[in-house]
Give the backbone structure.
Amino acid sequence: MGVISYREALNQAMREEMERDADVFIMGEEVGYYNGAYKVTQGMLQRFSERRVVDAPIAEMGFAGVGVGAAMVGLRPIVEFMTFNFSLVAIDQIINNAAKIYQMSGGQFNVPIVFRGPGGPAVQVGSQHSQALESFYAHVPGLKVVMPATAYDAKGLLKMAIRDDNPVVFIEGETLYNTTWDVPTDEEHLIPLGQADVKREGKDVTLIAWSKMVWTCLDAAKALAEEGIEAEVVDPRTLRPLDVDTLAESVRKTGRCVVVEIGWPVAGFGAEVAYQMQKLCMDSLDAPIERVTSDDVPMPYAKNLEDEVQPQVKDVVAAVRRVLYLE
Amino acid sequence: MAQIIGLPKLSPTMEEGVLVRWTKKEGDKVSPGDLVAEVETDKANMDFNIEDDGVLLKLLVKEGETVKLGAPVAIIGKAGEDVSALVEEAQKQGAAPAPAAEPKQEPKQEPKQEPKQEPKQEAKPERGAETSTSAPAAKKQTPPQQKPAAKPAAKPAADKAAPPQPTGRLLASPLAKTLALELGVDLRNIQGSGPGGRIVERDVRAAASGGGNGHAQAQPAVDEEAEPVEEEPTKQTQALAVRHARQMVPDAEGDYTDMPASNMRKRIAARLTEAKRDVPHFYLMRTIDAAPMLAFRGRLNELLGDKGKVSVNDLIIKAVALALRRVPECNAQWNGEGIRQFHRVHVGVAVAIEEGLVTPVVRDADQKGIGAIAAEVRDLADRARSRRLKAHEITGSTFSVSNLGMMAIERFTAIINPPEAGILAIGTVVDTPVVDKGGAIVAGKRMTVTMSCDHRVIDGALGAKWLAAFVDLVERPESLAL
């Protein structure tokens, strides 16, 4: 074990998988000579050469398509988007090709590809670069959607995503790259896709959150503990497949549920989670399930407004107090 | 023979039709192509031309009635035939209300036979589930909340002598309802502290512990053991009702999971039940010196190098096949009246797969070399696991082998795979002290095999003879190559 950053964990995961399997390669803007826009691919060009660390032109639709084609003929590409905002340029390749070829070819072609990069709002980068797109991808059958919150999860899940024989959308937390966690150095540190993780145990309310919101919920849980409220924080880690069993087990235990996401409220993935929980836990619920989301607006640029729009600890605490009938 | 005529499909999308007019009447002779009625379909009024020859014996539908596609409309046959049985059957098919001429009509025309499949009722609720669209500041949107009038604990009981009569709907959270059942609390006696007077968990707990809402007489449930739990109201966080360990409840539905059976599982259940019930099994057991066979296998594999591998099981398949050749009376089946003895030897090999087991067949195993058998079994087993075996590859065996040796089972008895007359169950090779020819105790390798015999075909002495042949082949394995 060793305490490493989320960024380093991703780097290790890719290096180990590229050492392990010569078919794995990475392609994206600035992944090579610049060492990655967020330095996730630091040093990989030196180790693996231009053949396997490919600097792509600024043409997401193009290189995402090249990746899908490469995957169809047997390679295992990792396509890095500088941020997931730019995946929108390539979304036709992701949704209409990567996710569908296996089905449309009658199982003749599978597409073992990983689309990865940072997602979610960062700090003052404007509304076009401050959005959470996981709900878009989680909507699509044929895709898996992974949202790691910690370095530990990032490494184990990325290794598993690379080994997966079907397309995986792997969205990293843009503001999480410097967070650290104890991570096994074991090269077989693998976390199956579709396995939720209880990040904090509690008995009074279940907070369900992924990616950066796990950290917000852990902070909220700390604040609630001072009032004598023990919140359980459960991180699904992958939105698709979704481990409803683990989530429901927690909700049945606590009788109350708050779903927290940094995306917008309308048709956000939290709505699906809330639906599943009310369906599976109806008889255990003491209060309607609450959702905490960003406000239903494009992200403002002003710092004070930007903070206000996103879910903060106080919003989570308030929602918890509502499901506990404390106000 | 009279027969029922159903309403034919007169347009591609037709599901029912209105019989507008009969153009023939009961007793009329008809031949193929004759117009017998006009039917209004979803498209238009269509001619109903009959395709049969005969006499219209009975019209089952009155003009103006709506009839489902395929439902009986008439009975046709030879003049003078008795149709009462058919009329009854037509009624049972639930279609047309019997004509007025039939007064003793039973009231069982109810089940109109067409179980209307509700289209995708599963999917529906999902769509409507979350309609909180468009509220701009959804984050802050809290349910319109009436403040609970006061802390529940402070609320005086309404009237202890006469509990409040329920008026209107009782509002309680699902958890509160569940808990009330568990703790034997009558929700009608509780004043809810949630929004709109909703009874929530803490109200039920307070009532159960005799405090709070002032209902010391929480009514015990029918079950005497389900006494209200003694619980001190939590002091630090009084409003926070913390859930405690569930009470022990009698065995209930939640204590097990029912898993639907796959088709394979159903087939296994049916076939093996039948086999064990109908075939008179008896069992013969022998312990074999396995050392020569293991040594022989080692030499074969040495010769093969990386060109393949021979397993103990492959040698046993070959030995079973040759033993059946030596004692052909066992290569037989009971066919109901007598014994059918087969001229060819096809050995079934039980293969465990995820959903159950299948028994692919090595055909003419007595004719094949050991290496060929090994390759064939590996291929069959691989394809069995991926469910890609063809039907002819799992039928026609004349004797079977089931081997649990690789799973460390020392000996077991197998169920015969009908219509075969025998199956051989192979145990693992055990290191054990044995007495050698000179009377000394030495380390030996022993394997126990159990033959299940169908007594209708194989008697004890015959089975023993077959086993002796099998043991001889295995203990002198070079003969397998001859």
Notes: Chain B has three domains: 3-92, 150-155+166-249, 263-481. Confidence is low (pLDDT under 50) at residues 95-166, 212-240 of chain B. Chain B touches chain A at residues 126, 129-130, 132-140, 142-143, 145, 148, 173-178, 193-195, 200-202, 236-237, 239-240, 242-243 (CB under 8 Å).
